[in-house]
Amino acid sequence: MTQRILVVWCPDWPEPGQDAGPEAARAFEPVVAAVEEFCPRVEVLHPGACAIGARGPARYFGGVRALATKITDAVSRHGFACRAGVADGLFAARLAARAPQPDGGEPDAAVIVPPGETPAFLAPHPVGCLGYPDLADLLPRLGIRTLGEFAALPAAQAANRFGADGALAHRLARGLEPRPLVPRPASADFSASAEFDPPAEQAERVAFAAKSLAERMHADLAARGLACVRVQIQVTCTDGREITRLWRHDGLLSSLAVAERVRWQLAAWQVAQSQERRSVASSDGITALRLVPDQMVRAAGRQLGLWGDSVVDDRVARAALRVQALLGHGAVTRPLLAGGRDPAEQVTLVPFGDAADPRHPAGRPWPGRLPAPSPATVFPVPRPAAVTDEAGAEVTVTGRALMSAPPARLSVGGGPWLAVTSWAGPWPVTERWWRPADSRRRARFQLVAEDGSAWLAAVQDGRWQVEAGYE
Amino acid sequence: MLPGEAVLPVLPPLRELLPAGGLQRGSVVTTGCWSLLCLALVAEASAAGAWCAVAGLPQLGVAAAAEAGLDPQRMLLVADPGPGWPQVVASLLDGCDLVLLRPPDHPPAGMRRRLEAAVRRSGGVLVVAGDWDGAQARLHIAGQEWTGIGAGHGRLRARRVQVVADGRGAAARSQARWLWLPGPDGSVTAADDPAGAPGEWPEARTG
């Protein structure tokens, strides 16, 4: 019997084939947490989609439709667009989450395939959505265009003719499950655990044990040529409660850092507990700690080369981690200087502990890049400005980079009007004209005001803004 | 991390402006408003291997910092330290020799003294872009003029600034120096007094 599966799909994340990166996985965490409120066993398919078994929660929440609505509402409250789909089997549920709404339905409502109707739901889909590129190429040439036509073949013939992949694809096309849903702790083999007898009363003792556990876990993984991207920390209390939290781990985190995370987790839990006004004595002790590596990747060495030879000093790493504990992972960044035309574009801010490539590669020509000296102040969001000529009319620039009049007065961000003593420009910049979505046409100026301040201003779509200041 | 010298080095043209000829460990230095002067002040120490944390300055131009001589690989940026910024700054001081700070608000005297104690304890240097009552040294830019740009021609090439220093104790006497900040290649060098002989253009000097 095939399991009823509910898939939550967020269209804002890239498709699984594309490189998602650690940021996408982390950004998806709130969605997983929101879904976890409804069902503790959430399988993350890829950043952007996760699945739960629907039968149990649907009974509890009053039907599949009610469950799907509750989940999409909960995810939307976190500010993410999402769709839900329910069907027999993971494959059909994934398609249902992306399927267009049948005529007359609300656009955001979940697509629910009734039990037993999954083969009929799958039938009109093209064979391309099976995810086997070879078959997607071959089958249409044999005149088999849809899953329904493929499923109509006898299973034995499909296996004979198309091999193991074909047999698997044939099962999918018939609405059968090729594999059971694997709950998230899929990699229990590499977990490391410790028990505390008598129960540990203090977080320090647990954190200390976590350090040696993390060392053991790292050694186990490294021996198999693996590294894990996330680590799940499970803490069991004397009253049987289990606190589980997933933490990102990009290879830079030492065993010390894992211990630090255990400490944060316990701190967060103690705060939550005092809010619940539970008696502290009944559940204060911790009996077991378990570290489970999650989302394994092949160990490809650390990307220290990205930053040359500079290895992060332990003291610096501890300070950065402490600030991350206070403000969140993304609050502490290291700048990566690379290519790009704008002063703001040239810098990629990488959260401390992550490895990332600059958005714009260095070492390519960036025509129109500003020469040194670079501005010391680069506004994260350009500030609106107004530039007028002697007569007080706004200076405009034509498509052929001709100015209406020389700039004479400048006001930055609604500030006082200052006379422009010297200026240079317009320097036209036309970017990515071949891609309408993010193409830009601007004319840039350098303006020096009477108080000695110098600005990098640009006029785009008839509006002046200040991108940077040379203070 | 620099070994435990008592004074962190600064660029040569700034040495005479600071009481110890550099950035005294455990001290607070102010630079008036946020400007390239903050970056110039920490550039030499950063190039020599010190880590530099920057708090409360989302508008920091990293390219300008690199041109001034800072090593971006040894920078930590905390764009928004939030309402608990004193604790963030104290944590950063534990790890970094240099902390550049623009305080989001004016700290009460008690808080200020606690942070000063944290600076002394950690042996770092706190460079404040703004006011700080108990600072050991204060620099600010008193005047500036840009060269290389005219009315509709040229471009910004270099800026000559007058940096004025005053402070407490040995630094109580006010001093002023003219600097190229930035020079034509972004670096920081000494400049002639424009009131004297008209300053040569640095390009002409380097040939």
Per the CATH scheme, the topology name of the largest domain in chain A is Alpha-Beta Plaits
The biggest sheet of chain B, with number of strands, parallel, antiparallel or mixed sense and barrel status, is:
9 strands, mixed
SS summary, helix count of chain B = 6
Sequence of secondary-structure elements of chain B: EHEEHEHEHEHEEEEEH
Q: Strand tally of chain B, please?
A: 11
CATH superfamily of the largest domain in chain A: Reverse transcriptase/Diguanylate cyclase domain
Q: Biggest sheet of chain A: strands side by side, in what order?
A: 12-13-14-15-16-17
Tell me the distance between the termini of chain B. Answer: 37 Å
Determine the mean pLDDT of chain A. Answer: 78
Q: Strand order, biggest sheet of chain B?
A: 5-4-6-7-3-8-9-10-11
Which shape of chain A, going by the Cα principal axes?
globular
Count up the domains of chain B: 2
CATH H-level superfamily of the largest domain in chain B: P-loop containing nucleotide triphosphate hydrolases
Helix fraction of chain A by DSSP (H/I, runs of at least 4): 25-40%
Tell me the count of domains of chain A.
3
Mind telling me the C-alpha Rg of chain A? 29 Å
Largest sheet of chain A: 6 strands, antiparallel, barrel
* Number of helices in the DSSP assignment of chain A: 11
| CATH hierarchy, class of the largest domain in chain A | Alpha Beta
Could you give a short description of this structure?
The complex is a heterodimer of chains A (471) and B (207). Chain A is α+β, with helices and mostly antiparallel strands.
